[in-house]
Amino acid sequence: MSEQTTPRSVSVLGLGPMGQAMVKAFLEAGVEVTVWNRSTAKVDAMVELGAKRAETVADALDANEVSVLSLTHYAAMYEVLGQAPEHLPGKVIANLSSDSPEKTRAGAAWVREHGAEFISGGVMSAGDNIVHPASYIFYSGPRAIFEAHAELLRPLSPQEYLGADDGLAQVFYQALLTIFHPWLLAFDQATAVIERSGHDIAQFVPFAIRSSEAFPYFMTEFSEANKNGGWADLASLKMMDAGAQHIIDASEEVGVDATFSHTAQAFWRKAVAASEQSGTAVSTYELMRGTA
Fold first, then answer.
1. Hey, how many other C-beta atoms are within 10 angstroms of the C-beta on 140?
2. How many CB atoms lie within 10 A of CB 2?
3. Element (H, E) at 184
4. Is the distance from CB of 166 to CB of 145 less than 8 angstroms?
5. 21, 79, 99, 139: which has the fewest Cβ within 10 Å?
6. Closest to 145 measured CA to CA, from 81, 77, 93, 181
7. Is 284 within 8 Å of 266 (Cβ atoms)?
8. Which residues, including other chains, have CB under 8 Å from residue 92's CB and lie 6 or more apart?
9. Regarding beta strands 136-140 and 117-124, do their DSSP bridges make them parallel or antiparallel, or are they unpaired?
């Protein structure tokens, strides 16, 4: 006779777009999933796909050892788990919600104070497409807890365990979003300039992609410079200020909001002023980290 195996199982609390994507990934991997959400319509949709319904938070926690949280922020974690704190002892909470590192550390302490284990995660994905080749998840918290449940969580995305600090996953996650958000705004501004200038955005995009291929070079060069106080040369800083003005002019000439470029220019000008005042080049990196 073939050996019988117990199916893997997990609870998912929070069924926004990301939570739903997680449920689908678990189900496709053969993991038994119990779901809970404030909106029953979202629960109904997941049940139709094969998930089990939890009528209450307590039911969701009781259903499995591990519960994955996909919520808007950590304040929502207190609201949700606070409905059934007496059901937390002996459980494992994997909170894959976004928030600040300090709020994550506080949340981890709260969960442990109520008798459960905790690991945090930061989901780096292409939107809610967690199966995209570029998607992965940062994890942090006690290594033993992560390793004990890594296989269960593996269907969600490739895993990058960073260390024992509960807030570390969010440090890396938020740092990468710090790069992504300005890029997204810059791309909106750039394509608006193309369109308002009477040209085809589709013609422009291949050149934007081609230009992005140089980003790894700049990241490598600037990361080395930032280890030593940042890239700074007064003439170059003035050139960046002038370059920002050209972008502002090109945008505003066709009626495109250049607020983002004005903000960038303000940093270059602040660095120029600080450099001229101190008699030595001051980098924007030093300004941002508060050491100039």
1. 28
2. 4
3. helix 168-196
4. no
5. 79
6. 93
7. no
8. 65, 66, 67, 116, 117, 118, 119, 145, 148, 149
9. antiparallel
What confidence score (pLDDT) does residue 291 get? 81
Query: Structure pTM?
Result: 0.90
Q: Which two tokens stand for residue 44?
A: 């109904």
pLDDT tens digits, residue range 11-69?
999 999 999 999 999 999 999 999 999 989 999 999 999 999 999 999 999 999 999 99
Q: Which amino acid is at 238?
A: K
**For residue 203, what are the contacts with CB-CB under 8 A and spacing of at least 6?**
194
Amino acid at 240: M
84-109 pLDDT, tens digit per residue, is 999 999 999 999 999 999 999 999 99
Tokens, residue 92: 């494992």
Nearest C-alpha neighbor of 55 from the set 86, 74, 76, 34: 34
- Give the separation between CA 116 and CA 87, rounded to whole angstroms: 9
